Amino acid sequence: MLTVVAGVLALLCLGGVATALVWYNRASTPDRSTPDVAVINYLQATLVSGDPNRAKLFTCHGAVPSVDEFAAEVARREQELGVSFSINIEDVVVTETAGTEATVIAVIRRSASIDGIHQSLADTWQFDLNNREGWRVCAGSRIS
What percentage of the chain's residues is helix, strand, coil (to nearest 5)? Predict the structure, then answer.
């Protein structure tokens, strides 16, 4: 009887460990399921969270220089003006998909209250992506 109870408890523990591992993998795996989701996650990691290690999970080659320069520009302006910008990623649209390549257009809006006046600037960006075991941002450029 004691052996049966020990066996059942061992199976329950193994099942619990397996379930925990599955949940952990789902929670920690970056979502690169579609081009637009990959762009949003990349921009959130780069511009909102400022987490370059997380951002690399969504890129082809580690960094997208034009976006890194934009992030540095935003940081400089925040320091010059003594404000903190709110960054929003808006109007994300997949404009073209061909096999393992895609193009995404997104608007990056930065807003802040400066001298009591709410101000907002928006830039339209184009991102080129490649599907390498999930969609990844390979290049980005400001188009307006």
Answer: 45, 35, 20
